[in-house]
Amino acid sequence: MDKQELIKKIEALRNVMSQAARYQPLTSPEIQHMSHHLDQLLNQYDRLVRRQNLTRSSLQAPVRP
To answer: Which of 37, 49, 47 is nearest to 12 (CA)?
Structure first.
């Protein structure tokens, strides 16, 4: 999954969870499940961004003083 697709999924799930939280407690199983899934997507996004940053930094020429 690419970065833009992950961002879309994260935003969509945030919206759904926000709407659901208006009508049920944050401790409800449905909200807890969505929160767990959102955490997984955010962790996946974080790993992807970190990998991209490492790749970019390793491709750059070293800076000489």
So the answer is: 37
**Helices (DSSP H) in 2-60: which residue ranges?**
3-21, 29-59
Confirm if 31 and 17 have CB atoms less than 8 A apart: yes
CA 61 vs. chain centroid, Å, equals 30
pLDDT tens figures, 34-65:
999 999 999 999 999 999 888 877 766 565 66
Q: How far is CA 54 from CA 25, 29, 33, 63, 65, in A?
A: 40, 37, 32, 16, 22
For 40, what's the count of Cα atoms within 13 Å in the CB-facing half-sphere?
A: 8
Using a cut of 0.70, tell me whether the model's pTM lies above it: yes
Residue that is written with structure tokens 């991209």 in the block: 52
In angstroms, rounded to a whole number, what is the distance separating the alpha carbons of residues 46 and 27?
26
